[in-house]
Amino acid sequence: MKKILIMVLIILSCCKPSKEDSQGENFSKNVNRVAEQLIDDSDALPFFTHKTNPLKSSFQAFKTGSVLPKGWILEMMQNDLEKGIVGALDELYPGIKADNLYYTARRGGMEDIPEMGDLELTGQAWEKSIMWWNAETIGNWWDGFVRHAFLTQNPRAIAQSHAIIANLLESQDRDGYIGIYKPNLRYRHEGSNGELWAQTTAFRTLLAYYEFTDSKEVLHAVERAMGLTMEKYGENGRNPFYLKNAFGGVTHGLMLTDVCETLYRITGNEKYQKYATYLYQAFSTYGINRSFNDLRYPYLIEQDSLFQGHAVHTYEHIRAMANAHYNTGYPELKTAYDHMLSKLESCILPSGAGHGDEWILKLEADPNETAAEYCAMLELRNSYGSLMQKTGSTEFADAAEQLTYNAMLGARNQDGTAITYSKHDNCHALDGKHHQGDASTNEPRYKYSPTHSEPAVCCVPNYGRNLPYFLHQMYMKADDGIAVLMYGPSELTAELENTTISVEQLTDYPWTNAVTFKIRTAKPIRFTLKLRKPEWSASMDFPSNMESVMLHNDYYAITKTWQGEETFTVEFINPVKRKKANNGDVYLQQGPLVFAYAIPHTEQVIKTYGNSPFKDYHCLPKNEAHKNLVIPTDFDFQRTEDSGPIMEGQLFDASKQREVPVKLVPMGKTVLRRVTFPEKRTTK
Q1: Which pLDDT tens digit goes with each residue over 493-505?
Q2: What is the pTM of this model?
């Protein structure tokens, strides 16, 4: 590959700052891997001029709001909105209300950076990116809040959502611009900026609101704004990635792809998908900061290299890369796509999360050593949803369920008033420190908090996007009917052939292994209902009187004329599986649930928020007995349902040299935990 300019990596932040910032050593030493000179890889991309041969996606997403939460998912969402962090973040982090950065507080220079609360700045080069940080915090919080409001049908939150959207619409300039910059900067950036990223977070919110309300004014506003951006930052304008430096916001902007895909689904206008492909090509052309661009084509064709960049960028960019591959059908992008999935394999933890305590760093996932950040969990899970829609492969639905029901729920505290920013699968302590062997370093991400305002208020806003996006991905439209891709209490309402159909799941899944389906149709209609067969299920048992249930390509297909209301129950036959982690340890899984030893702990409050129930706190183990536990090769764990799913059995206690009875609980219901254990051959 011919390089026009030679890239020399420099670590600007290796010089010790005058005072310690609040980001932690790991962040500071990795954020600034800016090239001394811009690298132009256009010689590696001539195929983008070839005729396209788009690939047909297996499924199509339903409109936002088609799937409503039921059962425990509804209860959790209501709690998080009314009593938890989703509904309270704008009060807990005043920057959300005080910084009207899309309208009256647009940015024209560093002098416009607002007060950032607990964030400690030291004058490092990357801190220029803070000019756009609140667009991520605010935009992603809006997105999760608005979806919670309408999905739980909460009148107060819906009224607040109307006000949020009204302010955004009022902010739109006469030329269509919606964004965070004053005229002196917009579309004229020479270095780090959040132009496209700020638009992405706002437009995702606006389009969700449009689909909930059918407000044509909102859709028109987004299309006008996108038209301006595609003109200024398109093939006949400036390349948005041709810059002197970049620290994350620029390459987050590649996720305007999400907006393009949604607009294409809503309008059918192919110009949006063409622009999404252009963005991936533009992103692949110029590389300036190696920390944020693992998914550039020139890096993906390096088959044997490992991911090394900022985890959330790597995992969200999967969607952009896969979309470009399907939009074009270029064989070169098929090769890059295959390499991408191969590289991803070594990043996956037993919980289903992709590791990255900010950075991946060419490390293989290790349940003891490599933590996972909540933002990265969300973006990987949402990327699995995109891969499901395009490929139809059930492996991505399996991965999405496992990640959601283990790692993501396992980051939330019991009452929804705090989450962890980063957490290990084997989480023995949350004490504000990163432990490695006998050494430890300060790490503000290891605690429970309703804001995490010291490093960045990014994970908590993204927490609000978790269940709404999960619901949206559970069902998709197939050519011959409806595909149920993931399981959990929910109800789809959609139109097929001008007939209203609803598919409801009555279940406590994943805490139970059965789902009752209730199908309602406004009039008789023949279609196929496809139910995914998970990899972990030996089989799925249907009622004996069910007609023509056929298993094909890991989907059970039921093709019939449905009429009125029909109900049937499916039981998943899920054996307990012994699985091996990358570090050689063993863990137990049944169905989507990974089971863990819950470590008894105490809480140490380190910050309060007035008289509210919200607090930052550490969790410390009461003892270290968990460190002595080993799993016998001939283990025998049995599931009981007395107080939720529990695995009862015996582990070997190396300190006592005997087996001891233990109860393992679902990882998604733990605080401190041990998930994996060394294996020991024992004789009785």
Answers
A1: 999 999 999 999 9
A2: 0.95
